[in-house]
Amino acid sequence: MNRTLDKLRRRGPGLALVASAVLMAAGLSAPAALAADDYTQSVTQPSASQVQINFTPTTPALYVDVHYTGVPGVGQQNVRMTNGSGTWRTTVNGLSSGNVLDYWFTYEKNGPQYDTPHFSYTVGGGSTTTVAAPTFSPPGGTYSSAQTVTISSATAGATIRYTVDGSTPTASSTLYSGPISVPNSRTVNAIALKSGSTTSPVSSATYTIGTQAGCPTQSDTPNFGPNVRIFDPGMSAATIQAQLDTDFNNQKDTLTAQMADRRVAHLFKPGTYNNVHDNVGFYTSVAGLGQNPGDVLINGDVTVDAFNASDNGVALQNFWRSAENMAVNPSGGNERWAVAQAAPFRRMDVRGGLQLYPASYGFASGGYIADTKVAGQAASVSQQQWYTRDSQLGSWNGGVWNMVFSGTSGAPATTFPNPPETTLATTPVSRDVPYLYVDGTGKYRVFLPSLRTNASGPSWANGSTPGTSAPMSQFYVVKSGDTAASINNALSAGCNLFFTPGVYHLNQTLNVTRANTTILGIGYPTLVPDNGVNAMQVSDVDGVRLKGLLFDAGTTNSQALLTVGQSGSSASHAGNPTTIQDVFFRIGGAIAGKATNSLIVNSANTIIDHIWAWRADHGNAGTYGWTTNTADTGLVVNGANVLATGLFVEHYQKYQVIWNGQGGRTIFFQNEMPYDVPDQASWNAPSGVAGYAAYKVGANVTSHEAWGLGSYCFFDTNPAVSSYHAFEVPNTSGVRFHSLLTVSLNYRGTITHVINDTGGTTPSGTVPVNVVSYP
After folding, report:
1. Which residue among 108, 672, 705, 728 is the active-site one?
2. pTM
3. Which of 130, 169, 379, 565 could cross-link 397 (Cys pair, CB 3.0–4.6 Å)?
């Protein structure tokens, strides 16, 4: 199945040293670094004929190369530095007094590599010194009451600039003139500056203010705000239908609703609903409020189709909608869920068949099912790819490029690539999503499912889902009018968060520091960081659960939208990992957003269960374009033993995924490379090859495994552009890939190899190049 409408719709679902030397020789470079943010450097002179060059990165680096000229009779040298306790060093010999050494660095930071400016050192003279980084007293931590914080630098005569909203300080930030008050939870960032010296690295201290003895009691029957519809089986079908139809008419139009701010949730209390038909539009969550799916029965339909004339019968833009935790007895015998990305179908009991394609049989680009039972046949037909986890199907029919199953009875056997189906008997580790329900007394609670290992079938197949529940009295309900400060106050007080539908602008980072915190959203609550802050930071703690959030990059660049764990985190969380589920990222489309990275995972054992990270290729005028919605990478994994189940990452401008952690596993990956690359010279990898791989495993990784991966190119702006390979991995026996493919959509550009140097060039005709296993 090809995607001939892609152009019309404009959517998108050792070597490093050699590389840096090649780039230098070619007059090219990696992205420029910000010295104040990333590192300190210095030169010392142990003898009259030698100097030692020192480089200390703020974030631990996999490698640092130094390039230098100025040694008499010797041309430019490119040297891999030696790491000692976080500082990289190289000794340069053959010098004499008066020689001027010109030097600069190439260093790795969370996957990409960066170049510094040039520095100079005169032998027998000296070089520019770096100002000592600021320190905080008291240091960051958890305190029962407000703190008065002193900031200082060991460099005499230095001035200090600081921020308290999570943003990176600059020379124009607030000048430190005396102790500052920290009355509530916040992160203080600071730099030190001195004329004639290199600005210090950024220092950071996070203060959590409050006893955290427990969340101040909230209501067990909260007001969920104006965008949540709660239906009761005692209501007439006509009343319910009128509300559903009103919401659908507001949310259905691909041209006007796709990038609008309207958000809504349809919640059905336990009971039976007859003749109810919920057509699900953009930013709409539909969910049952029972403890198990069968507690809510819809005798009718919950439907997604190619609803609009402008859709031309295809479902390629049916994003951002969901169905969860209910039983459906379809009126025509088959439920239809013809969706693209970011449209999960979870904890559903379909008492009939399930059609994942439009009624028109037009193209579709989904999709994700989990913890679901389908009594009849699940049919994908025109779906290009799909992932089904921990479910039970009557049968399966269909397969275009990449159909993947794990822990699903009724799934077809592995026959990739003909038909293109890959099946794992179990899911190695999984934990179903937290969800809202009503107990027998009419109070609201959030159920917290237990961790499963080697899972197969729905968690509720033998009765209730195993787990525990928490009362809504422990959840702060985030509604219109809440600010980053009020949300952080709730977190620091020990509350969980329940986000209601809406768009929330954040002028400071949301800091999640408490183990076992649950953050649950319904109706696609959208978090927009303002002024370049990072939207959310999760500490390296056990058991944080994030579900149902959309991070939408702000117009000032953020370094990351969501970070899990501090850099260098190494604690094991195997028994109680952090889970990131139905969490989506958008760069551009609605606004001209910018973010260097969307998701950074530093914590070990994290489960990434269904994300879509998307740099927009279409949307509101002025919100997308190569220099408009800039974004390097969708996902960076530094933590060990991280598992991704259902990974969708599209259109980022460098590596789409960078995986540096050991023991990583991915089950299902869908990717499109950026549509809008202007020319090849703008898009060559640091290694010197044409283009950036979609999925890069770090050179030092010795264990990694992945199943069912597809990467597509559609270089529409310049079809002469190519990518050397879609998957770049170390050649070692512990790094294994299964069932992977590349496709050139409408033959707009090419991918030369599938993985490393294996696999042929993508041909015309929008047909895949398949590799069954590697190595």
Report:
1. 672
2. 0.78
3. 379
